[in-house]
Write a structure and sequence with these properties.
Shape: globular
Radius of gyration: 24 Å
Largest sheet: none
Length: 558
């Protein structure tokens, strides 16, 4: 382990660290600025791709509606799914790591800062390239977020939109691989004195295993995109079925680990929130660390359960490895429950989102075991049941972890507090909207409604469930408006100097980022504020407990 140097003034040879203003932001090698850029870009893209989903729900609210054409609808679901996975949930998770990991391990900065900045710009450029497909004569890509051949070749999906989709996803994925390397290398080489691997906060461990999956699995997506690009240049490539199935194997070797990259950092954010607002040390630390590592290893062995319906996957093997995921998942759930049971809960906005995460993601996890069972998967494959499962994982689960993280660390990043009233309004609208939108989709899928259809006939009997789902989507839209207004109003008040100033540690945090100022200085920790000794994964909690014990001892002697 390389011990991080003390936080002293950076030697720049008389040159400024970075220019000021917007140019300083987009060229900065400060990991905090790159992290803010990454997460802010992700949130903007979340709102943009979320509007595509609202259009789809408006179309499906009633039978035989044609608010948009079938071709336009195909573009909407393709870019919505692609945007959320490649451009929103995955990059936001890595953006949190960029900002928080150096702070939590007591480092003055991130490893490979210029390369890290390159990773962000590749990601941002990829998003722009993918969205540019809407400006082409035939529109954006139309073959889904996974773009299976031969549907996605240039014969069945002609136009520049498909080519721009490949280029955009390739650029964004390359950028996320770079960001993953930077975060992992920082953990391995820049930890502060006393910060052993088994003293890393749970969030840092979640980033370690996530980055290992990014490095190990994401190159498979680049290979799949290269194969797809070759097939669009020469469609005869996909005349041989081996390449069609080969593409699916490459894609899902990436596609299942990415689910955990989109989950582990948000799970860990929930863990941090639960421990702080329960007033307790996180329960089952070593078991959780081990479960994360086991989860990551198993994630590389279950991809074939996405291919049961092809008849060309080893059902017994992939079903067995899928069911084995229950064990590490159970460890993590019991650890969360063990933390809050018996604690003195403070129902702050971050805690509300963290508590809602637990039962909602459980629905996503249990239905994942169902679709990992071949006999059930055959019935619900490519139906709205799968849509519901995916959204209970990534929205009812990960998105609630995302918002718990935003409300928890917003004071650290900005130095001001978000409005509590609007935060609670956002929470309740989101809970109602999430379950009203996605719960009916399980019934729709089980009753036979296929996904990726732009309309349906009245006699099929899907109308009232789709109407419920579309009403729920309206609640989701209202929730996101409340969130955006809260953030923008608070940032405007901060610029005017009228926002509620946050103390450096408004929550009583357990990890090292709460030991520095809010927002932190360029090198993270002021020279006049030395790091507390690191004796566990919760050094600030250790410090407060030692101080309380010393005070009690002095009182007893007196």
């Amino acid at each position: 382990m390389t011990v991080a140097p003390p936080a002293t003034e950076e030697t720049t040879g008389g040159r400024p660290v970075s220019p000021g203003g917007w140019l300083g932001w987009i060229t900065s090698t400060d990991h905090k600025r790159i992290g803010v850029l990454t997460t802010a870009t992700s949130l903007v893209l979340m709102l943009a791709t979320g509007t595509l989903a609202l259009t789809m729900r408006a179309q499906l609210a009633q039978p035989a509606q044609h608010l948009v054409s079938t071709h336009t609808y195909d573009q909407l679901f393709t870019i919505h799914g692609s945007g959320m996975i490649y451009m929103v949930v995955t990059p936001f998770a890595l953006g949190m790591g960029l900002y928080l990991v150096p702070l939590q391990i007591g480092a003055p900065g991130i490893a490979m800062p210029r390369t890290t900045l390159l990773g962000y710009w590749l990601y941002a450029l990829g998003a722009l390239v993918m969205l540019a497909g809407f400006a082409t004569p035939r529109g954006a890509a139309t073959s889904g977020w996974f773009s299976y051949p031969p549907l996605a070749d240039s014969v069945n999906s002609p136009g520049l939109g498909g080519d721009l989709w490949i280029a955009g996803v390739f650029l964004a994925t390359t950028g996320t691989i770079i960001l993953g390397w930077a975060v992992l290398w920082t953990v391995l080489r820049r930890r502060a004195r006393g910060m052993t691997m088994l003293r890393l906060p749970v969030f840092c461990w979640s980033m370690v295993v996530s980055c290992l999956m990014v490095i190990g699995a994401f190159p498979a997506l680049l290979a799949a995109l290269g194969l797809l690009a070759a097939g669009r240049a020469d469609p005869s490539v996909f005349d041989a079925n081996v390449w069609n199935i080969g593409y699916q194997h490459l894609f899902w070797f990436y596609g299942h680990p990415v689910v955990y990259v989109m989950f582990f950092p948000y799970l860990a954010a929930v863990v941090e929130v639960l421990a702080v607002f329960s007033g307790r040390r996180f329960f089952g630390y070593k078991g959780t660390v081990l479960s994360l590592l086991v989860f990551a290893a198993l994630s590389m062995s279950v991809w074939g359960h996405h291919m049961f319906a092809t008849g060309q996957a080893a059902n017994d093997y992939y079903s067995l490895t899928s069911l084995a995921l229950l064990v590490p998942a159970g460890v993590e759930y019991f650890a969360m429950l063990g933390t809050i049971v018996g604690g003195r809960l403070r129902l702050t906005p971050p805690m509300l989102f963290a508590l809602a995460f637990i039962p909602q993601f459980l629905v996503g996890g249990l239905t994942g075991i169902m679709v990992g069972t071949p006999v059930i998967d055959y019935h619900v494959t490519d139906s709205y049941f799968v849509v519901a499962h995916l959204h209970y994982v990534l929205f009812a689960g990960s998105a609630f972890g995302l918002f718990a993280a935003v409300y928890f660390w917003f004071p650290k990043v900005t130095g001001v507090m978000l409005g509590h009233g609007m935060s609670r309004l956002h929470f309740w609208l989101l809970v109602i909207g999430t379950n009203l939108t996605f719960l009916p989709m399980f019934a729709l899928g089980y009753r036979g409604m296929p996904r990726r259809v732009s309309t349906y006939a009245e006699f099929e009997g899907f109308g009232w469930l789709n109407l419920l789902s579309s009403i729920g989507a309206a609640f989701l839209a209202a929730a996101m408006v409340a969130f955006a207004v809260n953030v923008l109003w608070t940032l405007r008040a901060r610029a005017l100097g009228s926002a509620e100033r946050a103390p450096d540690d408004p929550w009583g945090g357990h990890t090292l980022e709460w030991a520095t100022t809010s927002p932190p200085p360029r090198l993270n920790f002021p020279a006049d504020r030395p790091l507390p000794p690191v004796t566990s994964f919760a050094p600030l909690l250790d410090l407060r407990q030692r101080q309380a014990a010393e005070t009690a001892a002095e009182g007893s002697r007196a």
